[in-house]
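The methods section describes the discrete structure representation at length, but only in general terms. An entry of this sort, consisting of the sequence and the corresponding backbone structure tokens, reads as follows:
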Amino acid sequence: MRHWTPIGLIFLLTLTAWGGQADELPGAAGPRVRYLNPSAAADVGVAVSDRVNDVDHLRSPADLNNSPQRLPSGTRTIFFTLYFAKPVPLGTNIVIDVADSSGPLKFRQEDSIKLGKAMSKGGVFFTARALDAGAFQDGPYRATVRIDNEAVAELNWSIGG
């Protein structure tokens, strides 16, 4: 298991399917992010949005804490931002598993991102995801962020209502 104390960068991440039931997904009513690895809270920031976030103000992972938890109805593309405060090695693999109340979501894009370049000082990375057809349904969502196969954070949000 990788220890993420040396990591620091913001990423918009790729997504794969992750299962869940409606009563398990708090959406915007739940915590915006729950870190699953104690060191991740200091080293990795995660956010979801319906547009690319302005990252000029980011100085630490905590700067993403005010990101929206409710996206507008009709959202067709979601953007993930990850901020790593420490260096990220070449070949780091990042996956974001996303589910709504009906279960795993499938996207047009690749399921994972492998860094082709080391980020010696950390930094910001974005990725966008869209469904094969149409807009995201209104309701609760959860994303699980995995770095080199280790789940580091869960992100809760809702679309619409």
Q: What stands out?
A: The two ends are 39 Å apart (CA to CA). The chain has one domain: 8-159.
